[in-house]
Amino acid sequence: MAHSPFKAVIPAAGLGTRFLPATKAMPKEMLPVVDKPAIQYVVEEAVKAGIDDILVIIGRNKNAISNHFDSVPELEVNLKHKGDKERLQRVLASSDLADIHFVRQGEPKGLGHAVLRARAHVGNSPFAVMLGDDLIDERDELLATMIAEHERTGAAVIALMEVDRDHIHMYGAAAIEETDTEDIVRVTGLVEKPKAEDAPSNYAVIGRYVLAPSVFDILERTEPGKGGEIQLTDALQELAADPNGPGVRGVVFRGRRYDTGDRVDYIKAIVQLAADREDLGPELRPWFKEFAAKL
Q1: Nearest-5° Cα angle at 286, 284 to 290
Q2: Are the C-beta atoms of 293 and 286 separated by less than 8 Å?
Q3: Are β-strands 7-12 and 53-58 bridged in parallel, bridged antiparallel, or unpaired?
Q4: Segment 126-164, tens digit of pLDDT
Q5: How far apart are CA 82 and CA 205, in angstroms?
Q6: Where are the domains of the chain?
Q7: Do 157 and 179 form a contact (C-beta atoms < 8 A)?
Q8: Exposed, middle or buried: residue 246 (CB in 10 Å: 0-12, 13-18, 19+)?
Q9: Distance CA 37, CA 266 (A)
Q10: What span, in angstroms and rounded, lies between the C-alpha atoms of 6 and 210?
């Protein structure tokens, strides 16, 4: 479990252009994954790891996110009068998950800039950065392991997954050295979306980071990089290269991860999660088999 001052930052200011026109008026983080918006899974993951102070970085037209985590008295009263205790409980749960705060990013200047906008709220606390595109299955542990490694070493900690080299150009790639602990590695360098032949490994950075507040000073002086944006990867590269600092560690994740930032993977995530649900799976799984047999 995380100690009490630990906080989480969820950047949610992206435009969601891959999902247009669905995201023309609705934030991509509010797209439903079965029956919950994607961002709720991320908040639930933070809470499970012991974090109850969460800052969401939002942009224009993102009010639906704050509305979702607020109470809706008229809906709650309506469900109560109907005696619909199950749905009422689900509505109340989303409002009572954590102490959730919001700040605007303004211009979308990259992930590093979004994280920098959290400085006033985070203060001197260590914090997790959790990207809403990456959903980690609640049955698999990742964030708690990363927090424990940060508390043990003081290092910045990133989540890594082994991917096919043909896909490494879609991710940041880490140069690594093994440690004495299984699935904990030392990160010696990072390359943002390299060509397969230029990648230092097939260990891809996925959307979970655990950082000390000292990273803000680095982000303040980080020049815009790829795409004209302030890249968090550049700040992590500086930390990894510092011979006098605690460096960067990687936790290799071998569990279930769902990428909701891509349309096809988003649909796969819904199918996989629905099929595993006790209330939906028994009816869906036979239908999936019948449907697949017709293809």
Answers
A1: 110
A2: no
A3: parallel
A4: 999 999 889 999 999 999 999 999 999 999 999 999 999
A5: 47
A6: 7-261
A7: no
A8: middle
A9: 12
A10: 10
Is 112 in contact with 119 (CB distance < 8 Å)? no
Spatial contact of 29 and 37, defined as CB atoms under 8 Å apart: yes
- List the beta bridge partners of residue 55: 9, 101
Distance of alpha carbon 155 from alpha carbon 98, whole angstroms? 26
Both structure tokens of 98: 């954590």
Q: What DSSP character marks residue 201?
A: -
Q: What are phi and psi of 294, to 5 degrees?
A: -85, -10
Where does residue 139 rank: exposed (0-12), middle (13-18), buried (19+ CB within 10 A)? exposed
- Fold (CATH) for 7-261: Spore Coat Polysaccharide Biosynthesis Protein SpsA; Chain A (3.90.550)
Report the predicted TM-score, pTM, of the whole model to 2 decimal places. Answer: 0.91
H or E element in which residue 69 lies:
none
Distance CA 54, CA 9 (A): 6
Query: What are the structure tokens assigned to 219, written together?
Result: 């982000």
SS3 assignment, position 43: helix
User: Both tokens of residue 139?
Assistant: 């049955």
| Contact between 37 and 31 (Cβ < 8 Å) | yes
CA pair distance 35, 274, nearest whole angstrom: 9
Q: Which of 77-81, 261-265, 275-279, 281-285 has the lowest mean pLDDT?
A: 77-81
* Assigned token pair, 270: 């819904």
Q: Under a CB-based contact definition with an 8 Å cutoff, are residues 250 and 160 in contact?
A: yes
